Every structure is written in C-alpha cells, then in structure tokens.
Amino acid sequence: MKTNVKTTNIVLTPAIDQYLRFKIAKIKKYIDESSGEAMVDIEIGKTTEHHRRGQLFKAEINLVVPGQSLRRADIEDYDLYSAIVEARDEIVLQIKATHEKQTTLLRRGGRKIKEMIRGQRG
C-alpha cells in the first residue's frame, strides 16, 4: 500500500508522521490488493490560523484500490490526532459496507438459483 502525505499550514513532525502511518496501517487488513496495489492520499493540516474559532484541524483520506470505487473521508476536529482516527474509522466503515453489500448480493443470487432448481424438480 503506497501512502502519500500532504500537510497544509502545519509542519509534519516525526511524531505526527509516525502516528499517522501507524493508524493508517490498520486500513491494510480490510483491503483486497489482489487486483493491484492500493494508494492512500492523506492531507492533514490547519483549516484556519485563528484560535478558538471554528474547527481547527482537518484530516482527509482518499483511498484508491484498482478495480474498486474511490473512498474518501474528510474530517474536521479541534484535535489533529482525533481527526486522523475519525477519518480512518470512516474509511474502514465504507470498506466494510461495500464488502457487506457484495456478500448480500452474492447470497441473494445463490438463493434465486436455489429457488429455480427447486421449482424445476417439483
């Protein structure tokens, strides 16, 4: 999984970079990379330079997996670390929802085939 990190109005310190890569690595276990390598584009930064006025930090994650649709999470929060975690959780939720949808469609198709076979025997 390739990871690209972009910062806006903040400096990417080693501590932030390490935390970000640790949290994003957990996405990998939910991705099927059999069709190609996934790419994660991450943008973190301050949305404003004014303190105590609106949401201060944002974390945006774009996930591209070949053969699948683009997944995107954009979170604004008062804390950079919690924004990163919330964005990661939103991406994981989207991946799980897509997987469940595919499983449901597969089961529905199997059920229809079973009904057709039973209808021909009776």
TrEMBL record:
Protein name per the record: Ribosomal subunit interface protein
SUPFAM superfamilies (UniProt xref): Ribosome binding protein Y (YfiA homologue)
Listed Gene3D superfamilies: Ribosome hibernation promotion factor-like
Phylogenetic lineage: Bacteria, Candidatus Vogeliibacteriota
Residues spanning the signal sequence: none
